[in-house]
Automatic annotation (TrEMBL):
Its cofactor is FAD. PANTHER family: 3-OXOSTEROID 1-DEHYDROGENASE, FUMARATE REDUCTASE. InterPro entries: FAD-dep_OxRdtase_2_FAD-bd, FAD-oxidoreductase_2, FAD/NAD-bd_sf, Succ_DH/fumarate_Rdtase_cat_sf. The lineage of its organism: Bacteria, Bacillati, Actinomycetota, Actinomycetes, Mycobacteriales. It comes from Nocardia rhizosphaerihabitans. The keyword ATP-binding does not apply. Keywords: FAD, Flavoprotein, Oxidoreductase. Pfam families: FAD_binding_2. This is FAD-dependent oxidoreductase 2 FAD-binding domain-containing protein. The keyword Oxidoreductase applies.
Amino acid sequence: MTEQPHRIDTVRPLRANAVTHWDFEADVVVAGFGIAGVCAAIEAARAGAKVLVLERTGGWGGAAALAGGFVYLGGGTPLQQALGFDDTPENMAAFLTAALGPGVDEAKIEDYCAGSVEHYNWLVECGVPFKESFWGEPGWEPPHDEGLMYSGGENAAPFLDVAKPAPRGHVPQMADKKTGERGGGYMLMKPLADTVADLGVAVEYDTRIRRLIVDDQDRVVGVLATTYGKPVAVRAARGVVLATGSFAYDTEMIDRYTPRLSGRPGAAIEEHDGIGIRVAHALGAELAHMDASEVAIFGDPQLMARGILVNGRGQRYVTEDTYPGRIGQATLLQNDNQAFLVIDEASLEEALTTESSTPFFRVPPKWVAETVAELESEMGLPEQTLQTTVATYNRHAENGSDPLLGKKPEWVRPITPPLAGFDLRGLTAGFTLGGLRTDLDSRVLHVSGEPIEGLYAAGRCTSGLCAYGYVSGASLGDGSFYGRRAGKAAAAAGTD
């Protein structure tokens, strides 16, 4: 029995011979108009392909437009050089291999680092602005329009001994930023979306993909989508690019693959429902690192760097001056989501005089105490646990050192009463890092290891650069970089 092409209650691929009418046709069809999709569309169009973008919402941007806007770039970009920071692709690769593992795709990291300077120049050529200004304070992102910042713990233990520290968080210049609503991510997407418009690329909004369409040899030749619930068949003569985002908002996938994130999605948009992963997986695509996640902790980095973070046993577990996303991962994934920040009055007052891009994290402490023993008791920690931790920390802090975790001397000082305690238990949220396995040309790989003909992917629907670690800017960085690769490769398919 021939399958009805209008069936949308399955993610299994649809045979092309079941399609009686193509509603749209293009050389390259891009599903998703976020960072990966916009870059794929630009490169495919510049390569001479007729491109059609399908976007499920009413406008461009996706999660990228709401992001802080970090693009992780290095190896000696013009912005790094202008601000006096030395970097090389090899140095960048050494850091990323350590910070994004275990299990990183070393070939992809080497490839990304080798092409990083060219990619920066490409973004600038497309109109993305970067201000020649460096923000060197702890924080989630620059509070103003500074263009460069440490965004992955490069200058913190243990990584500062792995590779020469260099800031690689490149942030598009944006005035009047409002974190979580309109930031540097908007000024990354806006020039790129304008470039797509200038190239005459067609876009169909309010159109969401449901299934892949394949020929008798299982080559992807199009997608079945819906527009306001009405099925539409879209033919792709050369290739389909999946740029549909993560699965952070698909409850069943979260429960199945990353259960520690259940009930706590963050840093994504509700459209991130994993559809691109599911339709490709139904065709035999291999998945990678599906249990990996990035985790934010709702704490102020200026406070954390000046205090000590302890778990539910009163023990320190992470260097407090590192990338806060790394602190979030350590808290949720390794310490049962249990975290307390202990800081003395002088350090707290000093921290509160600094600028922050996330002032809403600066809430009053839950506990105040005149002694460590009193604070330990009020926090409900076992007797002597916090006291022992603070005594050990203070013993070395007298000499400005932290042999236990390696916090930099500039943040190390004895903790002396009066004290404040912040309850950070459960204050984490995250997004998924796993997805489709792709090669360096963004071709989606079958479980056999061979590319699936006609199918490409980039962005958070792929496993990307990250395995289990993360740095701010990795998503927008590899999404844009490999989105470009996907567009080029798809446009070149079938033209030999």
